[in-house]
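Note to self: the last two entries modelled the partners one at a time, which told us nothing about the interface. This time every component goes in together.
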Amino acid sequence: MNAITHHNAIVADRGASGAPPVLEVERISKHFGGFCALNDVSLSVPAGGLVGLIGPNGAGKSTLFSIITGFIAPSEGTIRLRGSPVDTLSPFARARAGMVRTFQVPREFSHLSVRENLMAAIPDQAGEHLFDLFFKPQQVRIQEEQGAALVEETVDFLKLKRIADLPAVKLSGGQKKLLELGRVLMTRPSVILLDEPFSGVNPVLIAEIIDRIIELNERGISFLVIEHDLEALTRLVGRLTVMDYGTVIAEGAPQAVLADARVRAAYLGGPA
Amino acid sequence: MDAYLAAIVSVMLIYVLLALGLTLQYGLTGLINFGMVGFFAIGAYTSALLALHGVPVVLSVAAAAVVAGISAWPIGLASLRLRDDYFAIVTLGFAEIVRLTLTSEKWLTNGVQGLSRIPPIYEGTGTAAAFVIVAILLAVTVAAIFLIHRVAHSPFGRIIAAIRDNEEAVQAIGKDPARFKIQVLVVGSALAGIAGALYAHYVTYIVPEQFVALATFYVWMAVIMGGVGRVSGAVVGTAILMFFLEGSRFLGDFLPWISSVQMASIRIGVVGLALVLFTIYRPQGLMGDFTKR
Amino acid sequence: MSYLVLVQNGIAQGLIIGLAALSITLVFGIARFPNAAAGDMLTFGGYAGLFAFSATHSLLATGLAAIAATALLSLLMYYAVFRRLAGRSAVSLLVASIGVAFMIRAVLGVSFGHGQLVYEIELTRPYIVGGVRVSPLDLKLALIAFVTLAAAFGVLYMTSIGRQMRAVADNSDLARVSGIRPQRVMASLWLLAGALTAIAGVMLGMKTIVAPEIGWEILLPAFAAAIFGGIGSPIGAVAAGLILGVAQELSTPLVGFTYKIAVSFAVMCAVLVFRPRGLFGKAEAVR
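The predicted structure of the combined assembly is written out below.
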């Protein structure tokens, strides 16, 4: 599985095999006052898929992410996770249901260490309930030990060992991106939405992040990725969706999509 | 002199309890409770009224904690989804409404005349009794310090620290910030309620005028000076506050041309100046640089 | 008939609340924090006007003196405190504004004591309009309020600096890139905010008394009106101030005099829970 192109082919196959999509965005529109930020946007992420979402600044990608994950309410449309609508769920409930996101500007818990950031994301901890904290100290301690072991796995997986005890505020931009990825991994998600995972990250680290994402994808986690770095993104995803002015203008295999004249006009700035 | 020292230490311990409540709410979680004195007043009147009707002081203080905690619940439900500056205004208003109610509902609170002859924490007179009272207050305070310390260094404490840093990111990892914030609000307010109850039984006489917004900002001044987000800061800051409050009283004795009314104004002014200067020049407080704001 | 008297009092009270709320909503919208010093600025205006009135017995001179003194105080607050906190969280500025409020109250308390002072106004025979007694003073005060509001709206909507202020309130980033000089906008904002609270203070002093606490007690209804009207909406603040003023007065036969502030508080909480953008507030920000 070294050859990335090979990997893409497999993902594309998996997407086409008819398994139900893990995430479906159906006819989402969003108006802010008189301004239409999103107009009738639909897309889907197949189970085990790796889908890229591109488009010029202001095309509505991050707004769409916020709508999918429940941070912004859409004006119209439906979001389905593994076939069931999640429109009435709050952001934290959607995350608990297995759909998690990262943010364009990383939102680390700046005063917590890297390890604590990861610990905080482990679901269902007795120690997070005041009653259990004082009356079931044994259970709290056991869970903390188990949690610490899980965190060490993630620290090793993302190669964060050297900085694991630093407060997150001290990390570089790229390290914060990795930390956010680690944090959402701790929640045991089924689909991860990455908002510009490569922006402000040096090329060595980008290669690293790509490898990690592919490895996670092989373990069965699906991804929807917003990214401006087309070169990196095409190494990663099996399908591309292109947005402009709040609508989807193209969709399909990366090579085909990028060859599309409309996409070149909208995204690459002119009919080159 | 011993009695005087005991009196100062007693009042200080009561303020430490309030400062610990605010440390939990503001320092650790980032909740801007500008209505601390409202919960303090609810605790004071609850415990005083029960004790005046024959309930043992131990039980009436416990009831004060419960009532103050429960009264924080609807405030939390109604306003925790608000931005923190709006939340601050709501809590400020809540405390004002509490004071209006204490003034108006004469059938219950005896209005501006207040409640007198409240049973003391410990029956007895003289220095020995004063020291027993100090010991009781100290025991409660130490228990509260243990409680806050345990919460701060626990998985619960990790999440509230995360909420303080970035609430949306907490939602993004599948935790409900509102649940944690309501619990923090209730526990901190219950602590303020206990402080109010102990205050009522300590001074044995309470009137609504003792529960003005200024008292809230005494506590804020203590927490901001001591160091936001640190249990030790709550204690140190309160010590400075007491030094200032008592010092201004001594100063009034030595400077006879300053009337007591003017001294009260000067005290308000110094609190104001401290809030302004610390916000501008040392937002992290004296005890170090933990939260950096 | 007694209800008409209550409505009349409510309008007077509402104009005071509305002026203070306008000051608060402008600062909230443009400097982006709830200015808890607005109440004590109002008190300061009440005192400044009192001394001018004792000296001149002219309403015009009183108003102008109060405006000048309070606008200067306001500008001083900006340069000494709030400008140094630019870029910090709204909460830092809020805490600092409470500190400033206490300092103003302390200076007034030390200088003039805690006693109640009154404007020495000669009693005049009320006009009877349709069976309702209307005092000439009330009419003059209402006139002053309307002139002040007209001037404020004139500044906001008909001058270049006013347009810049509203542009900053709408979108501070956009305003910055379009070449608006923030220092000038902020200085103008604080002058205007001070002038508005000054007139509110003079009106409150003339209607009731002057004492160090009067402004703090109007702060909660003024915050309520600013939120009810929609933060950043000048018209909303004034309209909500009038509504709350009348509602507070009309509630007194039902809930008693002391609870009238609770009416404002209840309205504020209800607005925050059910319609956070208030009467005239903008829809949520774009992205």
